[in-house]
Specification:
This protein starts with 5 loop residues before the first helix and ends with a helix. It is mostly helical. Helix content is 72%, strand content 0%. Helix 1 packs across helix 3. Among the domains are: 53 residues, no CATH class; 48 residues.
Length: 148
């Protein structure tokens, strides 16, 4: 008669005795009674089903002691390992930058051109000819812009 999902029906059946105890003449109780009669069952069967659901709801499955703890430890371990790998990657990048810096300093102390200068010289010969000359002086002097 009424279009209810299985989960809603289970909740209504579970709380049926409490609803009937609080308000026996309520609309919800009357509809539950009518639905049970239309389904071809009795109110006694509804109460039996309700008590069965109440007992099942109170019983909690006992989890094994090792199973829930292992995934948490594994997830903590995996988080630690992931963090350590990120730190190692950052350290490797830092070391590579330091190596490049040391190479540049050694090249400067020996008087040899650095790798950056060599790369710029190889890339810029065509660009050096096309660049326009820059002005040697500024357009406006600072003392000219201040008013007293």
């Amino acid at each position: 008669m009424y279009n209810l999902s299985q989960q809603v029906a289970d909740v209504l059946i579970l709380h049926y005795p409490r609803m009937k105890e609080l308000q026996a003449n309520s609309l919800a109780v009357a509809r539950m009674d009518a639905s049970v009669v239309n389904a071809g069952s009795s109110v006694a069967e509804l109460l039996a089903g309700s008590s069965h659901l109440a007992v099942c709801g109170k019983e909690k499955p006992k989890p094994s002691q090792e199973a829930p703890h292992q995934p948490k430890k594994q997830s903590n371990k995996s988080k630690i390992i992931e963090h350590q790998s990120c730190v190692i990657d950052q350290l490797l990048q830092h070391i590579m930058r330091q190596d490049e810096h040391m190479d540049n300093l050694e090249a400067k102390s020996e008087g040899a051109p650095t790798q950056d200068k060599i790369k710029k010289c190889q890339q810029e010969p065509s660009e050096q000819q096309e660049n326009p000359k820059r002005r040697q002086t500024s357009v406006a002097y600072l003392h000219a812009t201040w008013f007293v």
